[in-house]
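The protein record passed on below.

***
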Amino acid sequence: MHEFEKHTAEIAAFHLDRILEFRRVPPAAGRYVDMLRDIYDHADEELKDTFYRSPIRNQCFFGLCHYFCDAGHGVCANDTTLEGSVVAYLPSRSVARRTHLPNPWSRSYSKYEDADWETAEDGAEFCASVRKEEPWNDPRALLNVIDAHVFDFLTGNKDRHHFEVFEMFGNSSFSILFDNGKGFGRANTDVVSILAPLYQCCVIRRSTLRRLIDLETGEVKLSELMRRSLATDVLPDILTEAHLNSLDRRLGIVLEHVHDCVVQLGPQHVIIDR
């Protein structure tokens, strides 16, 4: 089922990223904007052509993009006041070139055909085939993928179809975790297949595991840390109680999978210092 992009998910992803100590999600914050004064008055003619009034006279627009930019998917204000989020721009590609890396565990986005990782009879064998290819033959690059999928499982985001890294740093850097708008959708559904890189490869970065254990065993639960962090944003009620509670539940599921790998292979093969 299609999951719509949500401005609140972008904000919550940024706060979760800070709590996990990843520092890989561009800063995002809630804002109230006047669609005419703050957007329309500064738009070019092509963007202005996407503005319209709803039947109850609220100001709407659908913007310019490749998918779902039409009146059927418009964004409407309360009169002209719109609640949204702003996300920090990454440096221009002319200043800091980025490498685009397709995700080996991306979904097929097809109703008729599953992705290779979904149909593999032996997940470990599929992972081994991935690790033979660049850049995933570098352990650090593969651990970046697993970090990203742990993050996405916590948020419920199934839409991580590619990664980007700053070219100047190569595999010595982390993947940039932007485009998180499809997270925090169905709070009561845990899409465990998002963790496929973790349970098929059975490796995890030591620093990531240490932080996850600290959050699981600490006096303050992950849900409460998120609640306190989100309270600093301008917007109220960014996540529901169900979404906050899902973080604690999903954190436990991640650690269960790590435990299974350690029992099967031994900690020296699962917990990696990179």
In short: The radius of gyration is 20 Å. Residues 14 and 25 are 5 Å apart (CA to CA). The chain has a mean pLDDT of 95.
